[in-house]
Design goal:
Elements (H helix, E strand, L loop, with lengths): L5 H19 L6 H28 L5 H30 L2 H6 L1 H6 L2 H16 L3 E3 L5 E3 L4 H20 L6 H23 L6 H15 L3 H4 L9 H13 L4 E8 L2 H8 L1 H21 L4 E5 L4 E7 L3 H15 L3 E3 L2 E3 L3 E8 L6 H14 L7 E2 H4 L2 H8 L1 H11 L2 E10 L4 E13 L3 E3 L1 H11 L2 H16 L2 H4 L5 E6 L1 H4 L4 H12 L6 E6 H4 L4 H12 L3 E7 L6 H6 L4 E4 L1 H5 L4 H16 L3 E4 L5 H9 L4 E2 L8 E2 H11 L1
Parallel strand pairs: 8-9, 11-13, 13-14, 14-15, 15-16, 16-17, 17-18
Antiparallel strand pairs: 1-2, 3-5, 3-8, 4-5, 6-7, 10-11, 10-18, 10-19, 11-12
Helix pairs in contact: 1-2, 1-9, 2-3, 2-9, 3-6, 3-7, 6-7, 7-8, 8-9, 12-13, 13-14, 15-17, 20-23, 23-25
Length: about 650
């Protein structure tokens, strides 16, 4: 009775489609893809030699040598399929480090396959594994059960591995990985009853197809611009490494000036630049034979991950990458200078959790000075700081609820009246666990979360309540400045809320000066313009803070209803720069010609006071007179100095 080969033909079609899709979908980079490709290719060869063997058997007598060769190669590759699938599982779970440390498992795993290979060699002389009978028909020998024992040994190990690390997989992926073993078990049982219908390779190929569709999905894990692994793959691999207690070294690369490059070159050429950097890293990785995976996260951030057993090599690789990125790149005949932060992290030795690691990497080019040298996380990482960033939203919510927000006041001195004329209200957050949280950290977070509107209402209420008090009236101050964030300025109910608040406390709007930053002033937004115009018409004065920080638009400044402009501290710090001095003198003259009053911020010495007073500044604010003070201390200060 001839053996039916149609299921093998179907298996060959399936496995060919999978192989083609691997290359079309660019699923060739990385250990996981590499071992999946090898597993699929072994299954392809197994199917091919199974078809050849069956075809030769069906042809009748003769071709003895070719039958022996075909059946031997079929058994050789068939016995490799499950072991290679297990190496794919090890790569998928990233547990090579566990196998390396367990020498018993390390040597036991290849043993069944080696026994089969030895049996195939011995079979040439003994015909104990298989032979051709008197009619030249393929017949199993006395040692053939070894093939089943080896296969079931590997199947048991594979099932154990999937169950052992099941938490690393979503249910659908868990089922896809188990499908190969279930399919092969069913096919083996089926062939016991229907021996002339081999379906094992068809079942195996169906399982590989499920894995290719449900697990090997480059669209989920590959960045289309650089063809590197993406943020999803990076975070998934970090979590997996923690789960399997794997120590890894990470080279973090942040291109700090990526946004400037994008603005200068345009999106298309900026992405081409990223692609060139990715190719350069990949080439260096191959050239130096580094065992590393390379990721592109976003916004010019790359990550290179290697096993910690290659720590010395990874440190050298970090230096190589840093040196390579220090050279200018030529894009469309333009020299592009990269400002690359390169930092080496041992994870989880230097940084314990992947959340902290992500936060550290995101803020690397914000929180540390660029030195051009490779940074070491063990030297610069402070867990408390990144714990703060991670819990910032909760800290803000707790501060609002428990009234851990405090309004401080910094006095402002009038040069012409030679007295303290007003004060700026400054918000401070003092947390029970983290202590003082700087405004430049929690204010942007509050704007992002939307909590800034509740904070703004609290500050406005606190200041208006103070202005309405008898102790404020006794201080002989003209007004208090209240800062408005960008988000507040763009809230359509802002002007209504401010007017309602002063009506609540029955105070004069002239006693409140509303201060916007130069960043807010740079926004050309109808709602903000309407808010400022309505507030100005209601009797509030408007001032501009941080003037000169780089966002200045003279036309925009001239169009806003500003009464006061506060010069940024950078003018004070740059007093030794003669060119900046010329800019400062002409800026003051220009603002005076527009009938605006001027406040010099950041004054810390008598020399600074005299210099800015002589230039025509109307008001002086800074540590020379006083730092920001809690309300009671501020009241005492004014009483003692007024």
């Amino acid at each position: 009775m001839k053996t039916i080969v149609y299921f093998d033909y179907c298996a060959l079609i399936l496995i060919t489609i999978i192989l083609i899709s691997i290359f079309v979908r660019n699923m060739t980079k990385g250990k996981t893809n590499d071992y999946f490709l090898k597993t699929v290719f072994i299954a392809f060869l197994t199917t091919v030699f199974d078809i050849i063997s069956i075809s030769l058997d069906n042809s009748g007598s003769g071709n003895i040598l070719w039958k022996y060769v075909a059946h031997s190669l079929y058994l050789f590759f068939h016995s490799m399929t499950i072991p290679f699938y297990i190496t794919y599982l090890v790569a998928l779970t990233d547990t090579w480090h566990i196998l390396r440390t367990n020498k018993l498992i390390k040597y036991i795993i290849p043993l069944p396959y080696l026994i089969i290979c030895l049996s195939l060699i011995v079979n040439i002389f003994t015909k104990s594994l298989f032979y051709m009978d008197a009619t030249d028909h393929y017949t199993r020998g006395i040692l053939f059960p070894i093939v089943y024992v080896a296969g079931f040994s590997y199947a048991f190990l594979g099932v154990y591995y999937i169950i052992r690390y099941r938490r690393l997989f979503r249910p659908i992926r868990f089922l896809a990985l188990m499908s190969i073993f279930a399919g092969v078990a069913f096919a083996t049982a089926f062939q016991l009853f229907v021996p002339n219908m081999p379906v094992e390779m068809f079942a195996t190929c169906l399982g590989l197809l499920l894995i290719a569709m449900l697990i090997q999905r480059p669209e989920e894990n590959v960045d289309t611009t650089t063809n590197l692994h993406n943020m999803v793959a990076y975070t998934s691999d970090l979590k997996r490494g923690l789960s399997t207690k794997k120590d890894i070294d990470i080279i973090m690369v942040n291109i700090a000036n990526y946004r400037s490059i994008r603005d200068m070159l345009g999106i298309e050429d900026a992405e081409h630049t990223l692609s060139l950097i990715a190719d350069q890293m990949t080439e260096l990785n191959k050239k130096n034979k580094r065992h590393a995976a390379i990721y592109y996260l976003d916004k010019g951030r790359f990550r290179i991950v290697a096993d910690s057993i290659y720590a010395d090599e990874t440190a050298q690789f970090a230096e190589t990458i840093n040196k390579a990125l220090s050279h200018n790149m030529t894009i469309k005949h333009m020299n592009v200078k990269l400002i690359a932060y390169v930092c080496l992290v041992s994870f989880p030795k230097d940084i314990e959790t992947y959340e902290l690691l992500l936060s550290f990497g995101e803020r690397l080019s914000k929180d540390y000075e660029h030195t051009g040298e490779v940074l070491l996380a063990k030297d610069i990482f402070k867990k408390e700081t990144y714990d703060l960033y991670r819990h910032l939203d909760g800290i803000i919510e707790k501060a609002i609820k428990n009234r851990n927000l405090h309004v401080y006041y910094q006095p402002i001195y009038s040069v012409s009246e030679q007295r303290f004329h007003s004060a700026e209200a400054l918000l401070r957050l003092i947390d029970d666990e983290y202590g003082f949280v700087p405004p430049d950290i929690f204010i942007p977070a509050a704007e992002k979360s939307g909590a800034i509107h509740r904070i703004g209402t609290y500050v406005l209420d606190t200041v208006c309540q103070f202005i309405a008090s008898d102790e404020f009236k006794a201080l002989n101050l003209d007004y208090i400045e209240i800062n408005l964030s960008v988000a507040q300025c763009m809230h359509k109910e802002l002007s209504t809320q401010v007017v309602e608040m002063i009506n609540k406390y029955k105070i004069n709007p002239a006693q409140v000066n509303l201060e916007i930053t130069e960043t807010a002033a740079s926004y050309s937004q109808k709602t903000m313009e309407e808010n400022l115009a309505h507030l100005n018409n209601s009797g509030f004065s408007i001032s501009l803070d941080d003037y000169g920080t780089g966002y200045s638009n003279i036309q925009r400044v001239a169009s806003l209803p500003l009464a006061i402009v506060k010069l940024d501290k950078s003018f004070v710090d740059g007093e030794e720069n003669p060119r900046l001095s010329i800019v400062l003198q002409n800026t003051i003259r220009m603002l005076k010609d527009m009938n605006m009053e001027i406040v010099a911020e950041g004054i810390e010495t008598k020399h600074m006071l005299d210099r800015f007073s002589a230039m025509g500044c109307d008001y002086i604010q800074g540590y020379y007179f006083s730092k920001p003070l809690p309300k009671d201390d501020f009241v005492t200060f004014i009483q003692n100095h007024q």
